[in-house]
Amino acid sequence: NYSSWSLRIWLLMKVAGIEFEEKIIPIYTQEGKAELQALSAAAKVPLLFANEQMIWDSLAIAEYLAEQHPEKALWPLANDSRAIARAVTSEMHSGFAELRDALPMNCRKVTTLDTVSESLQMDIDRICQIWRDCREQFGQQGDFLFSNFSIADAFYAPIAMRFYSYGIVVGKEERQYMDTLLALNALQEWIAISKQDDLFVERYEQV
Question: Closest Cα to residue 110, out of 57, 175, 163, 148?
């Protein structure tokens, strides 16, 4: 319900049809934290175990999957669109700190913020600009940022979830893109499972 980083890789593999076995670790409990620490010194999720390797960090996992499954075209095939896809994905991976703090992912939540701070609005505006620019330049042959579903879409899916959860107002084009993401069977599956999760983390429920 709360793990946006896990959603990114889970959604990518589900949509691409890459088979995997899932192990859920309750990282917000002391037992879960200890289990995760025993698996990885980074103590972060997601973790991918493949070919006797452990790969941590969602972007590194996505790059590994793209290399191991070139037939899935997880990045756009054209050089120019692939470069921009990597740039906007990296921006998502490393940026938007205000949005992450102000709008924690919570698939069970449906509300409307009373106020949106200036710094939060700046993050929202930048994300909307990315979506519009990518759709205009590279997305005209399909429904996603670079026409076909890619790593970039998987990385922005939790943002779409946040915008829905907190009633963030966006333009018509951005809303259409959000609707496209939400309509994915895999994302609907994640949401359904999240709503059954009985774990509640107080700091993520207070927004």
Answer: 163
